[in-house]
Batch of 4 targets.
Target 1
Amino acid sequence: MPFKPLVDLDPEKLKTATKNLCDVFGVPTLRPHQTETGENVLKGISTLLDIPTGGGKTLAYWFPLFYYWAPGNTDPACQKIILLVGPLSALMQSQALSLTQKGVPAIAITSTTENPEQVLKVGHIYPQKTTYINFQQAIGENKYRVVLVSPEMAITSKFQDLVLSKKSFLQNIISQVIDEGHCITEWGNDDFRPEFSKLHVLLARLPSGLPVVVGSATMPRDVILDILAKLRLRADCARVSLSNEKLNIALSVRILQHPQDTFADLMTLFPRDSAGT
């Protein structure tokens, strides 16, 4: 079942997606790299998102979803899915809870989840509820807009059988996100979390042509080349990046001229016109 990218993007839908995303997450506007990444996904273009920590990777991840859907939308044709693989179970659980509280149905399934193929308690995500649902119905039958999984869970036959083989899931997934993509290189080895180097197995089980977004703040050229090789992505994969350069920060080395306990050498850190203020 191949992924069907959009040839032309609707300007009005892009505008509405931006507004809804900003309203839900409480930000005044989206940054260019967020909209560029999101539009790449909608067009079926896999993208390396290389931006500093705090640069807003997650809004770039969710933008394609909001092009089709907004909280409260029940139209079956709009119930798209973002699948995210991340390295930290606690962080993904926190993200799932935060998304759900904002009206975006989300669930995190990791190697620490007890009996995921059995009955899951929605109270893990909705603390105020005690309803019980089946794992297969919840994810495989498209009950969540964002599904977060660990690499260990993502490549299991269990996840393949209960989620990835379900027609409703395959028809509605629009993006595979790999967060903290540098872990593919730094962790994916025989000594520590080898599943990171085997995520191509997951990609092979997803619809052909599905766009992949690999996000990180640590992707120098050698890491990028390794990521592309291990995920078996095209060498000319699109790249959206921001510099880590901080123009308001500088390093200076000075020889101490005064006794250390006087702190007199610190005076050079204060502007000359700041005396008496």
Target 2
Amino acid sequence: MIRLEDAKKIIEAAEVKAKEIGQPMNIAVADAGGNLIAHVRMDGAWLGSIDISIKKAFTSRAFDISTKDLGDNSQPGQQFYGIHASNDGKVMIFAGGIPLKKDGQVVGAIGVSGGSGEQDHAVAEAGVAAF
């Protein structure tokens, strides 16, 4: 289980990485049910990325896979092609969503949006490392 206290630590670590790379981000943490626990929009982060960060966290938890890997596997001809149209459009296939695991079991996810896919994924990884 991820508590609010955990989510705040995850977000704080992600914010540190975002500041380090000079890219303001939206950072969301979801619980085991894919429900939002906490969200932060850093000063200057894109408004459009609020929704994307939340949906990246949902997607990572819903499928227990990073959105980067899901995106790689959802291109034309790949096994998950078209998955982004499922779940009433809540599925994001851009890098930046990563499952959060405890004792080998997925207990939630982080979703980050506001930069390039590479930047989003790196910031999400920093949040995961803090968990």
Target 3
Amino acid sequence: MEGDDAAASRPLSKWRSDFSRAFRYYLDRSTPHTTGRWLGTAAVAVIYVLRVYFVHGFYIVSYGLGIYLLNLLIGFLSPLVDPELEVSDAPALPTKGSDEFKPFVRRLPEFKFWYSITKAFCVAFVMTLFSMFDVPVFWPILLCYWIVLFFLTMKRQIVHMIKYKYVPFNIGKKRYGAKKSPGSSSMSKD
């Protein structure tokens, strides 16, 4: 009998391994396509919101999703090494004007941030398919509590950013001046 169980689990194990390898392949291929990934996540989020709106339920699932997303956002906006808490040999934020510039390293990288958000929306959507997760609650109280929690958390994060003088966003390459073309000159025509 044990031989039958082992033989039956081999195809399942092979299928799982093949699926995992294919999933990792496509996930790795999506890495450089930031805009496309986020548009896909926005589409998943819209589908989830429409599902909750039309079902008129699953507010506790949405609240849990909101708290989880807030936690991910804080990790995304936070530096890897917090100067208040840790002393490390890793790149740290400069605390004085004379300190050497060190690049901002996130606690939660963008790709993992995107992947976690997408996975969270998919799990929340699957939870809306089961009525046991539709706990009756008065949703306006949950919404008000989440908004208060969001503003208090963001206020604390912004104060931390100002105190340690870091900006967690990279807006792209800085341009210092317009490059003059070889045909243009500063001479005026008479």
Target 4
Amino acid sequence: MKKGQNLTVNGSGNYPGGSYDKVSIRGEGTIESNVECTSFHVYGTSETLADVKAGSVKVIGESEVKGNMESGDMLVMGTLSIDGKAALKKMKILGTLEVAERLNGEVANIKGSISVGGDVEYEKFDLSGGFEIKGLLNADTINIGLRFGESTAEEIGGEKITIKRKTSLLPFAKDEGSLVVKVIEGDEIFLENTKADIVRGNLVKIGSGCQIGRVEYSTDFIQDKNSTVKMSEKI
């Protein structure tokens, strides 16, 4: 990526897109067209009316991208919403991420919440919080800690899938997180607090708090006494 001039916003206003080295928004800024940069840092409020392509992204405040977004390293400690699709190679979400279409990358580390209107595909997906995925969540390794609310996905697929309830650190938060999904398919699966129509895998362990319609397994199946499985079959 060629290095150009910097775009620094300390007050408020509208600014042109284009190729920049560093984009830094500390006030309230609107970028009116596509932007490509080495780094895209938002400490205030930003709105980009088109696509964003950046080497690194940091959002401490609130940022909205009306088009698609592509980044290498990403850190979100506030709120980021993307109206198109997102290719976020390595992302760490400590706040909220919303993507209207599909989301993909290599490593996802989420300690907050995400909402995605399409499929999510990563090599490694770690989440402690909550999520809403209207398509398929697919990753080689999936580790989910259900901290709050009801998380949802159409399907979840991977090699090793671990979904556990996560006790809140707040003394007054009594509700545990839960997951509702139609199909879970993987090699090695462990579930807690999950409601699913079908669970299909080699080694399937159903922990406490689950309601499963059907389990299909090829190697072994273990069920906690505090869960309900309507039907299980070795295939």
